[in-house]
Amino acid sequence: MNLLQELQFRSLQQQTRRHFLKQCAAGLGSVAFGSMMACGPSPNEEQKAKQVMEGLAAKLPHFAPKAKRIIYLHMAGAPSQLELFDYKPELAKLDGKDCPQSLLEGKKFAFIQGVPKMLGPQAAFHPRGESGMMVSDLLPHFSTIVDDVSLIKTMHTDEFNHAPAQLLLQTGGPRLGRPSMGSWVTYGLGTDNENLPGFIVLVSGGNTPDAGKSVWGSGFLPSVYQGVQCRSEGDPVLYVSNPEGMSGDLRRRTIDAINQVNEKEYQEVGDPEILTRISQYEMAFRMQTSVPEVMDIKDEPEYIHQMYGTEPGKTSFANNCLLARRLVEQGVRFVQLFDWGWDTHGVSEGDSLENGLVKKCGQVDRPMAALVKDLKQRGLLDETLVVWGGEFGRTPMQENRGGRVWPFKGRDHHTEAFPIWMAGGGVKGGFSLGETDEIGYYGIKDKVHVHDLQATILHLAGMDHEKFTYFAQGRDFRLTDVAGKVVHKVIA
């Protein structure tokens, strides 16, 4: 078949009933079956299109919120609670002894094999603040803000590997494809600044989380709600700046032409995602001026740089904390910080408790405390919820990967107990919730599942997690799946 014949054949496929019925005979039955099974286009496509056109405009919550903005500080890799927040003197007495079989039977671990040794705390603890909260010496700056913090010591999760645990915490499910917490919040509430994304992500530590960028993806929500990753070094957002030789006026006319094509395509096929594409082009154009301004920290006063420990022009957790404050000041609804490098297995000096953990604490302690203090002194803390934590905890046993004793001290992944702290945004200050057993293995009082945390964050933002749904794939979805209870004890 030559090119002319192929062209004629392709034309006939598009035009004649004979070719249509030949190619689609089986497909017609599938279309009918899909319709009966509620697959295919949902009945509320027009409503979805309306929501997309409204885009990131501020929306009313279900009820009056305590937190109008959220800053989530995720320590990717899972910090050890036994060296930071969960004081266990009894564990110190068991240091070096064989782990009891009762703690091993029927349990799954990422790397522990055979019978590991118990490992006592590798840091000293002291009571801090008026509340007397027990906090490790590794966090001297954090110790000065404990009276503004609610500490949950009995978080637990269902996943013991990093990627699925991060997905479960941030998206409500351990597998890919579901919207992240920031996407849900932005979908429900929009943003107060039409020139900036409603959900911005900042990454430090040299890597993205193990689950990749899906932890700030929009899943089945319109992609206008996905997190926009910004950088504190180089261009704030990749590919937003105009190419060399292109003026702002030419860029504006180019976008107008593209949007006209997209609008025509939407009229023909009715796909709401096309409207998302239009919205993103418009947002990108506005971001060319708004993002560089808000991401430039050089003009901050010197005392602020000293307070956070920032170094303008570099990538660091300290810079990202200061940027988070600047972003919420400008009306960004949800700011997500990921700091990589907290996986302290002890198989090398860099990931050991005595070196790696100490180094990571030194990198985050000052800036995270400064963030809370800075928000407070500016009158923003009462309406800004700050959340800090990892995806799971660490075992009270020393990791013995490969059945051997390693020269450095480390702990394996642990699902039964880990800490999360929150400040501002309607939570109590100087408050500690939950108790673990004498070695920090199990939560024994006021256990909080990750779905409970998600329900609580949404509640503080003014959203009822059970009513806050999105129709996709034939059913209603929500961030908390079919679980989750609001932890009212931490709410002021």
Distance between the termini: 76 Å
Structural class: alpha/beta
Give the uncertain stretches in residue-range form.
34-43
Tell me what portion of residues adopts beta-strand conformation: 15-25%
Overall shape: it is globular
The proportion of residues forming helix, as a percent range, comes to 25-40%
Average pLDDT score: 89
Summarize, please.
The chain is an alpha/beta fold and 492 residues long.
Explain this structure.
By secondary structure, this protein is of the alpha/beta class. It is built from twelve helices and 17 strands. The chain has helices at residues 3-15, 17-36, 45-54, 89-93, 162-171, 181-189, 248-269, 272-294, 302-308, 317-329, 353-377, 450-460, and strands at 69-76, 125-128, 133-136, 149-156, 199-204, 228-230, 334-340, 384-389, 393-398, 411-414, 418-423, 431-433, 435-436, 443-445, 448-449, 470-472, 475-477. The strands form five sheets. Strands 1, 4, 5, 6, 7, 8, 11, 12 and 15 form a nine-stranded mixed beta sheet that branches. A two-stranded antiparallel ribbon has the order 2-3. The protein has a two-stranded antiparallel ribbon with strand order 9-10. A hairpin with a 6-residue loop joins strand 13 and strand 14 (443-445). Helix 1 crosses helix 2 and helix 10 (317-329) runs parallel beside helix 11.
